[in-house]
């Protein structure tokens, strides 16, 4: 049985200092380490590309075509797609919120490119390009949408609660008392002839 926590603890530990990993765990550790490095270098890779990477034994492919010969070295043994998806899920949990970071990175790229377009458009007197670049910035940062107003919690009135044992305040009419409950219990006990 493979222990994911054991692999996570030993993922980037030197070989001599690792816990005793089974051959299966060592292979999984190699896949995870390679996948982790690949994701850190290129967070924009799709899950399909990551799956192709793992099912091909660590050979990086581009739309099904292998890169140059120097990259044809297998890092680990190829695995099934199901195993690849499990590996991707586990490594993405290690990497963290890559999607959020990637989205912020893309917004930054859109902003930088749009600012360059604005500068060139102003230099050339082409204000259609300036307008288009401004629209990209507006959409990327959602400047065309209203921001949610922050509630001033101090301005809200404080609720006033008065504890009470009166059930009629809750709108419950004809609430029996404890003595009435006891009488009903005794009647039911006699009816069913249950002994203490």
Walk me through what this model shows.
The longest helix is centred in the middle third of the chain and has 27 residues, at 98-124. This protein is flat. Among the domains are: 4-96; 100-140. It contains seven helices and two strands; from the N terminus they run αααββαααα. It has helices spanning 4-9, 23-41, 47-55, 81-95, 98-124, 127-140, 178-192; strands at residues 61-62, 65-66.
List descriptors.
single chain, 196 residues, mainly alpha, two-stranded antiparallel sheet, 7 helices, 2% strand
Record the strand order, biggest sheet. 1-2
Order of helices and strands: HHHEEHHHH
Instruction: Label the overall shape.
Output: flat
Relative helix content: 40-55%
Count of alpha and pi helical runs: 7
Strand content: under 5%
* Terminal-residue CA separation: 53 Å
Task: Give the helices and strands, then pairings.
Blueprint: H1 4-9, H2 23-41, H3 47-55, E1 61-62, E2 65-66, H4 81-95, H5 98-124, H6 127-140, H7 178-192
Antiparallel strand pairs: 1-2
Helix pairs in contact: 2-4, 3-4, 5-6
Short structural description:
This protein has 196 residues and is mostly helical. 54% of the residues lie in helices and 2% in strands.
